[in-house]
Design goal:
The longest helix is centred in the N-terminal third of the chain and has 20 residues. 25% of the residues lie in helices and 32% in strands. The chain has one domain. A 6-stranded mixed sheet has the order 1-2-5-8-7-6. It has a 3-stranded antiparallel sheet with strand order 3-4-9, with no helix packed on it. The chain is of the alpha+beta class. The relative contact order is 0.21.
């Protein structure tokens, strides 16, 4: 689900930027730094979408049953609902600083105009994604400094979005539960 979310949002942003500026494949899902400390070639002079945190959404129900088609139900592990914290960075070299900020501003405008993506409005949203929301997540400057230090990269113009709700469900039935077929008093004489 996480990969599908990143693929979906990068495709949407790339479509919008292509319509606005005629630029292809400007947005990539990538880390800003390779494990060896080098900068990935695929992220140079791009808008980079990176996950900086994943948290469990706790406000959702915890019991899940699925119907097996024979009036029986199966108890499955509850769906896991996740919020992704996405760092959207204008990873341009210093000679393109104004262009970096222009592209980042455009991305912010796209997500401001479209903070909600649903399967109904975007049929190309891959199953089982159904709904994604994007809201700006404000981070105090000292915490932002810690984030960039943790990433191991030098600061570039960026914004953080909290993306709700990526749902992961592995529908392995843990326990069969018979369906209700009646009130339990069939065949018993009625009392007068």
């Amino acid at each position: 689900m996480i990969a599908k979310t990143l693929t979906f949002i990068t495709q949407i942003l790339n479509q919008e930027l292509k319509m606005s500026y005629g630029i292809n494949d400007l947005v990539v899902a990538s880390s800003l730094v390779n494990p060896d400390g080098s900068s990935p070639d695929t992220a140079e002079n791009k808008i980079v979408v990176s996950i900086i945190n994943i948290e469990r959404e706790t406000s959702m129900p915890t019991t899940t049953y699925i119907k097996d088609g024979n009036k029986n139900y199966g108890s499955v592990a509850p769906s896991l609902h996740l919020n992704l914290y996405l760092l959207v960075s204008a990873n341009y070299n210093s000679s393109n600083y104004l262009e970096a900020n222009k592209m980042l501003s455009t991305v912010i405008g796209i997500l401001q105009a479209n903070p909600l993506f649903t399967k109904q409005n975007y049929p190309n949203m891959q199953e089982p994604l159904e709904k994604l929301t994007f809201e700006i997540f404000n981070v105090p400057i000292n915490e932002l400094s810690h984030i960039w230090s943790g990433i191991g990269a030098k600061y570039v113009p960026s914004i953080i979005y909290k993306t709700r709700m990526v749902t992961i469900q592995n529908a392995i039935i843990k326990k069969a539960v018979p369906g209700i077929t009646g009130l339990g008093n069939e065949g018993k004489p009625k009392k007068k």
